Each structure stands twice: as C-alpha cells, then as structure tokens.
Amino acid sequence: MENEFVLFWVKRCAQLQSVQLMRGNATTALPQLRQSLLSWYDQNRRDLPWRKTRDAYRVWVSEIMLQQTRVAAVLPRYENFLERFSSVEKLAKAREASVLAEWSGLGYYRRARNLHAAARVVARAGAFPQNAEAWRELPGIGRYTAAAVSSIASNEPVAVLDGNVERVLLRLHGKLGTSAQRWRAAQKLLDHTRPGDFNQSMMELGAMVCVPGQPICSQCPIQRFCQTRGRGISISRKPRQQKREIAYCLAQSNGSVRLVRRPKSATLMPSMWELPHCAKTSDSDTVLFSIRHSITNTDYTVRVIQRGSPLRTPGLWVKAARAEQLPLTGLARKILCKAGIIL
DNA sequence: AACACGGGGCG
DNA sequence: CGCCCAGTGTT
Predict the structure, then answer these.
(1) Per-residue pLDDT reduced to its tens digit, A57-74
(2) Which pLDDT band holds residue A45 (cuts at 50, 70, 90)?
(3) How far apart are the C-alpha atoms of A54 and A258, rounded to whole Å?
C-alpha cells in the first residue's frame, strides 16, 4: 500500500519533469536526464579501441573513419592505420598514395585525402587546434567532427549532432525542428562536466537502444523523460538501390596481375587502381566468379572474366606483393582477395 | 536544400 | 537478394 503510494509519486514527478523538459523551462529534469544517461554509459558502453584514449590524433582518426561507416567496418582497420601512421607528424610525412593504400576498402577516399592534407597543416602549425571552431577550419572536419574531437579530447562543452543523436532527439521530444533547432536542442541537453562522455553516450544510446526501427525502450535510461516511448517515430526511407551488371578482366602472369590506374581527373576514386574493365565478352572467355558490390544507391553484380584468347588489355603488370601496397579500390581489393592473389 | 561520394552486414 | 546505415563539401 505504502509502496504503491510512493510509486505513484515517483511516476507523477517523472511526468511533471517531462512536461517541464518539453516546455523548455526545465531546470530540474535536465540534470537528472544527464546523470541517468551518463551512468548508463559508464556501465554499458562498448569497449572500443578509440575509447581507450583521449589523444587528439587518435580521436580524430577514429572520427574520420567512423563518418558514414559502421563500427564493425572500422574496427579491423583502426589499429592498423595508427600502427602505420603512429603520429600526426608521420602521417604528414607520408605520401598520399600510402595513406590511400591503407584506407583502401573503407570508401569515401576524400576522407583520407583530407585527413592527410589536414595532418600537414597541423604538423606545420606544431599543435592541434585548441577548440572546435579551430578544428573546423581543417579540411574534412565539419561541424560534427569538430565538436566530437574537441569534446572528447579537450572536454570542450560543445554538442555533437549526428544521425544517432537526431533520432534520440526526435523520440525524446517527439519532434525535430530545423537544422539550427536540432543543434540548439543538442547543445541544451549537453552535460558540461563531462561533455565528451555525454556526446558519446547520446550516440551510444542511438546505436544500441534508441535504434532505427523498433527502439528497446525497456533498456532506455531516459525513458522517463521521453515523449514518445517507442510509439512509431522513425526517419524517412532512402530511395531504392539500382541494380547494374559490370565485368572486369583478371589477367595473371608470372605472379603478376594486370591493373589500371584511374585518371587523376576522374570524379570517382581518382588515381586509384582497379582491374581492367571488360566491355564485351567472347565465347572463349570464362567467368571465374561473380560477386556483389553495393555502392551508395547502386547494387552491382560483378563478373570476373578470364580471357580465353590473349587479348591486349590496358594497364600495367603488377606483382601481387606490390599490388597490395597500391591504393586499390575496394572492389579491386575484394576481387583480388577472392581470387587468392592478395590476402 | 539537394546532390555526390563507398562499402558492409543482416535475415 | 532486398533492406539498412548517415558526415562533408560543393553547387
């Protein structure tokens, strides 16, 4: 009886706090929300390699890699990259082709080019930018990444807004305003004592609990403050994937493979290496294997062809060991791996 | 505000 | 095989 009475008041207070939060005059609910989220994060956060450090360079590299890219895809590549380019000075001194080769398969290669160019700026300056506004001036660093790096590495109280945070905000408040309003909402929520952890806790919540599709509200630490609590709030869909077919030639000889370099002027993956295209096939050609490769909104079915007649293919003969060090496109790497030519 | 830019995982 | 994920820079 007494327990029920207490429970009633706990719920009642939660309701009142939620209302206050929604109306924006909420000075009591906000600290509790922050505390709940941070406690949850402390106990449930995934043990990711970039969370073991607050080193600006390492945080920076992780944020660039994680742009538009899943954690699972970054995981096997992050440590390798940092081993190869162990400091911002080392990265600055490297050739762009080496950086691209290490990035091969991660996609959005402009990220790697910008990271490299920015490393040269930082190395020349002799110091990392000291706040988000300064980070923002480097190529490849937009508003999100500047806030992420600065809050995590330097505890600057500046909020991040990415797809995860937007989804959390949408469900928490039941609506999403304009872009400017979203940034303000995120900033208003931010915990100023632990800004880096708070930012990560918002993104972690979006990734693990407040997921796209059906959120797992039973596990949500801020359910009490949430306006929607799992009621059908979702983000609009993307356009369908187009299907296309394409063929490449796989020509081998004496431990070498035929490769072509994309034009420097190409819009897509300039200067990177791939297999020669196979425009048309003859009866003597063999389909070694087919693989799927999906890029943005195009879903490719790729046939890998071995020429029956010794047709002249463009490109250069490249030793297998050498090919591995080239900036290969993800697809080229995938084909060479599947053919057993590289690892 | 719209578009271009890669690639992988899941069922 | 269909479906899902989400920052930066340019126009």
Answers:
(1) 999 999 999 998 888 889
(2) very high
(3) 44
Structural fold of domain A13-225: Endonuclease III; domain 1 (1.10.340)
Task: Measure A294 CA to B10 C1' (Å).
Answer: 14
Listed as ranges, the nucleotides of chain B within 7 A of a protein C-beta are 1, 4-10
* CATH code at A242-338: 3.90.79.10
Closest protein residue to C7 (Cα–C1'): A67
Flag whether pLDDT at A42 surpasses 60: yes
Q: Under 8 Å CB-to-CB from A260, ≥6 apart: which residues?
A: A273, A274, A275, A276, A314, A315, A316
**What residues have CB less than 8 Å from A61, skipping those under 6 apart?**
A50, A78, A81, A82, A115
Q: For residues A220 and A286, what is the distance between their CA atoms, to the nearest angstrom? A: 55
pLDDT above 60 for A339 = yes
pLDDT surpassing 80 at residue A325: yes
